[in-house]
Amino acid sequence: MKPAMETAAEENAEQSQEKKGCFECCIKCLGGVPYASLVATILCFSGVALFCGCGHVALTGTVSILEQHFSTTPTDHALLSEVIQLMQYVIYGIASFFFLYGIILLAEGFYTTSAVKELHGEFKTTACGRCISGMFVFLTYVLGVAWLGVFGFSAVPVFMFYNIWSTCEVIKSYQANVTVPGDQICVDIRQYGIIPWNAVPGRACGPILENICNTNEFYMSYHLFIVACAGAGATVIALIHFLMILSSNWAYLKDASKMQAYQDIKAKEEQELQDIQSRSKEQLNSYT
């Protein structure tokens, strides 16, 4: 029967080995996490969420401002209302697509990271996997170029609202100077082409324009368009980040496939050499 001290020592050794194995397993799992893809996914989700959410609310506020102050006749802005409604539906589609696409790219990052980590082990890569990685590189490049256009388009309403806001600031400064009337300072929305030239009233001047700038709808729409533009910019950065990651992973997989082919050829040659040596020994033994 073993002494109590030896039994306790063995139990402590087994417990320390289990703890060490759990620690090594955790380190191995953390080492397989694609942190670059994870950061790019979070940035992409955040950018798309800001662009879609803020853009949707800002477009609704813009229609309300136009209907109340610049185009009182519904037929004058009917086309604009339909276009804005269509853009809101497109926003729903963009949000759904990028939610799915971001998860796919993150999963692809997990696959390629674990594959590269096991390059010197039993790593196996297929031509289909390399083809899928190359397809993601091309698709992400196309989406990045498209989002550059979205980013530029989202800056247009920011520019328009900034012009209106800056005009209101000029009116306020002119009101401090009694000799200069502020009623002559106007903003004509019709010159931007979003409503026809026969829209009534089509423009706002002086105190009326200042009151428009002081409304909650104008304030919220202006700042929401700024945030939406920033979200589009963040999405562009995320897609560029994804493009760099995918290109790097594709190169790693391509090199890994070459290394795998080299190791297979080397193993085959070694096996053939061993077979030749074994046959030579058998023939030598038969002669002797």
Automatic annotation (TrEMBL):
One of its GO terms (molecular function) is structural constituent of myelin sheath. Belongs to the myelin proteolipid protein family. It is a multi-pass membrane protein. The chain crosses the membrane at residues 38-66, 86-111, 132-156, 224-246. This is Glycoprotein M6B. GO terms for cellular component: membrane raft; myelin sheath; plasma membrane. It is found in: Membrane. SMART domains: PLP. Its main location: membrane. Keywords: Coiled coil, Membrane, Transmembrane, Transmembrane helix. InterPro entries: Myelin_PLP, Myelin_PLP_CS. It comes from Cyanoderma ruficeps. One of its GO terms (biological process) is axon development. Residues 259-286 form a coiled coil. Pfam families: Myelin_PLP.
